[in-house]
Design goal:
The complex is a heterodimer.
Chain A (H helix, E strand, L loop, with lengths): L1 H22 L7 E7 L3 H15 L3 E7 L2 H10 L4 E4 L11 E15 L9 H8 L17 E5 L4 H10 L10 E3 L2 H10 L3 E6 H9 L4 E3 L9 H5 L6 E8 L5 H10 L5 H6 L3 E2 L3
Parallel strand pairs in A: 1-2, 1-3, 5-6, 5-7
Antiparallel strand pairs in A: 3-9, 4-7, 4-8, 4-9, 4-10
Chain B lengths: L4 H38 L4 H4 L3 E2 L4 E2 L2 H32 L2 H16 L2 H19 L6 H25 L3 H9 L4 H12 L1 H17 L2 H6 L17 H8 L5 H30 L5
Antiparallel strand pairs in B: 1-2
The chains are: A alpha/beta, B mainly alpha.
Chain lengths: 276, 284
Amino acid sequence: MKKLGIVVALIVLIGAVWGFLRTKPDDTKIEKLVLTGSSTVAPLAAEIGKRFESLHNNVRVDVQTGGSSRGVSDARAGLADIGMASRALKDDEKDLLSFTVALDGISIILNKANPVEVLNKQQIIDIYAGKIISWKEVGGNDAPITVVNKAEGRSTLELFLHYFGLKNTDIKPQVVIGDNQQGIKTVVGNPDAIGYVSVGTAEYEAGQGAAIKLLPLEGIAASVENVRSRSFPLSRPLNLVTRAEPVGIAKDFIEFASSTQVNDLIEAQYFVPIPR
Amino acid sequence: MSLSRADRQLVTLLRGCALLAAAIVLLILLFLVKESWPVLRHVALTRFVSDASWHPMDGLYKLTPMLSATLYSTLGAVLLATPLGIASALFSRYYAPSLLAGCYRRLIELLAGIPSVVYGFWGLITLVPLIGRLHPPGVSLLTGILVLTLMILPTVALTVDAALAAVPIAYLRGAAALGLSRWGLISGVALPAARSGIIAGIMLAAGRAIGETMAVLMVAGNVVQQPLGLFDSVRTLTSNIALEMAYATGDHRAALFVSGLALMSTLLVVVGTAELLSREPQHD
């Protein structure tokens, strides 16, 4: 019983000292950098922010989500130091400055055993809307199509819907998945499945021998290379947005996020680093 | 009877622990209500039942298909795992030679310790293609039930085994002295005597099945629809939270906490039922 008391006392003491040490740096002045906007860019910005903080120990990076439009309007109104947008600036937003930190592209994937080599835009729309239900109708086997869709809220879903002009309520899926890995596993396990995942993941997994193939779109092969050169149609830039020419830590942050020092973070999120 | 000083200290400590445990449950409930409040404030509760579908980004919040998916998958798994688990416990307790019974019990314990992701992964790689051959696409309520059955089977087997072990030896000796057959002893004495323990075990397993997320997420297909057959793709309440929480904001996020509330209420009903069932006959 006595021993237990000592142990408890020790733990409390260590906790108190640790807490004290942690509050200590408050003496120096902390600069705060606020980023708001796209939930696609936010996880990446948060990772970059962590690394940025470790290099500048008097800076706190605060990342909040709320969609690309919020990112743009917050940057314009000065509510955020930097806005995040997973799209190019629109014509009426040209008063702002944008800095592309990475590119995001998605690829339609089929099982390797599926004889279908190419699908046009309308065929993909009809498959996802449940109007084409057999591979036979698009030149494949006489087998029902398994439509694999992404869960609501995912940025890949948003980009996919936007490109094909679909609404999520129109889609008639047989399987709904969460992350890219689950999508690849589902298509690998089902020869009649069609799905879509980020190009980075799909190319990597196909290179590792996963039984999937990446379908070209509008005659352009789905590859990281083509996303990087911005010729692949199903892709978009991930931008940081500011109201005026950035100064101080905002400038440092944007320069850091645009440097090769964050390429590994970009790839870890299955995005494509831009050529520097 | 007056308690010694040490005893009184212990009682205080235990009361504190019990209070803490109860407080945590209440806090979780409060937290769920608080987080779902933003959507509950301007969306009537009935809309979670009457909306056309679950498309929270478009303001449609129907939860009932997921509630039935959760209930069906749990019910199916419990129906399959209960007879198997009881049979397994009877085998290791009354029929197997003691050495084999010991090994067998270790093996079941091992099975209980396998993380659910592993079951899910196995289901996705092996079970889904197998069922897909029977009825594509293979991800379905049935696959979910089978994986859940496998997961809760050790829970049933071990708790039933423990309940049988707790049957007073005098009962069994008395039954043997009356000349009952082995089966007569099991069905007439051991099982009725272990009744409340068995029911508690089944309910524990049901609780685990309701709360299971990853394994079901990987094999059940996750399409939000009212399941009409075993081969339909379904999404459970837990899968719903796991699938969408990472990227949900605003009302969408709050609606996911409403899923959590629905799940918690379901669990309360199950635990309440278990309490009633195992309490009913008191004849000692």
